[in-house]
Amino acid sequence: MSVFSIWDQFLIICKGKLVTIVAILISSHINCIAQDIGSVSGKVTEAATSKPAQFINVYFANTSIGTTSNENGEFILKNIPNGKYSLTFSGVGYKLKSSPVEIKDKAIIGLEISLDQEIIVLGEIVIKSKKKDFTMNFLTFKKYFLGESANASECSITNTDVLDFDYDKPTDVLTATAQEPIEIINKALGYKIFYALQTFTFDKRNGLVTLNGIPRFENLEAKSKNEEKKWKRKRDKSYYGSISHFVKSWYSHSTKENGFLVWQVDADNQEHSINPDSLFAKDSNTIINFQGSLKVVFEKEREETNYRKDNGSFVPQTSILVFRKRNLKIYGNGYYENPLSLILNGYMGWEKIAELVPLDYKL
Predict the structure, then answer these.
(1) Is residue 246 one of the residues assigned to a domain?
(2) In what order do the strands lie in the sheet with 37-46?
(3) Using alpha carbons only, how large is the chain's radius of gyration in Å?
(4) pTM for this structure?
(5) Same structural domain for residues 261 and 345?
(6) Do 198 and 300 lie in a common domain?
(7) Statement to judge: residues 209 and 298 lie in one domain
């Protein structure tokens, strides 16, 4: 995985009833600060010829902020709230590319990006699985891709033809690939998501799912004011209690005010209530100097019924955050790095793509 994979990809690992997310993206819900904005402009060219790369999708991963390059390969993105993002470039015939960009103090950033052409090598002809096998594999994929929340029941994949499945019977592992971004209509939240799938495997024998990819959001057009209100209500609910809500609250030293209670879990599984602000490195407001596990409870919302059925509980949303390394850096827009050093268990891990709202989401 490249160094540009910070926050641009969504990696989920699920095992048994305990769902774990290795946070490369993790449903990123952000309440943007409108007064602190910047812009990014630049030019996209073909690496081999240096000619302008025309009509390339240019967007911040996991946001609705995007545009396309013009006939000269030029682009501009304006009114970007402060924070760190993964700027992504994709187009037919080119390899997808992402670069980290930090917007700070109303920055104006100019970039020059070159894209490599996607070379398609024709290999052996493979006879695809029968329709019955495809349907069964798709249902498994959909369960672990969209999730099992109430919102997932209002999601649909509109271009299933781009999906291919391979089931290895000896290992009991299902692998999915997609020739083009997966198009998801989320009628619960009012989004169309274009998801560039990079990895999906389901190890049935060990109950292990691995998923990563790059999402881009577009707002659906509401049919009525009531539908707009419904989307706003459900988007707020998805944001509240999310990992991004927690990180953003932590950055602003307002975890308790925002409904989060935190305990440190020691090696003997004993819990000790702490103020998470005490975990910042000395003389730093951005570096978390901690290794180990934190229990995080969002007391303002209870766990969803579908989750409680699996876990036999009826309690406020409860998650375990496992910090594998010290010096996790957090940002005011909910972004954090190195994301591979943070693992989410429990409720935050159970929520999947059906619960995603974009980085530029505003309460």
Answers:
(1) yes
(2) 74-81, 37-46, 108-115
(3) 21
(4) 0.78
(5) yes
(6) no
(7) no
Per-residue pLDDT of the chain (363 residues; tens, 9 = 90+): 222 233 333 444 444 334 443 433 333 333 333 345 788 999 999 999 999 999 999 999 888 899 999 999 999 998 888 888 889 999 888 998 988 888 887 777 788 999 998 865 555 545 555 677 999 999 999 999 999 999 999 999 999 999 999 999 999 999 999 988 999 999 999 999 999 998 899 999 987 777 888 899 999 999 999 999 999 999 999 999 999 899 999 999 999 999 999 999 998 999 999 999 999 999 999 999 999 999 999 999 999 988 887 666 678 999 999 999 999 999 888 888 877 788 888 899 888 999 998 877 877
- Owning domain of residue 202: 137-219
3-state secondary structure of 136: helix
Specify if 126 maps to a domain: no
Of the candidates 10, 6, 149, 81, the one whose C-alpha atom is nearest the C-alpha of residue 361 is 81
Q: Is residue 46 part of a domain?
A: no
Domain endpoint, select from 191, 219, 247: 219
**In whole angstroms, what is the distance from residue 38 CA to residue 28 CA?**
20
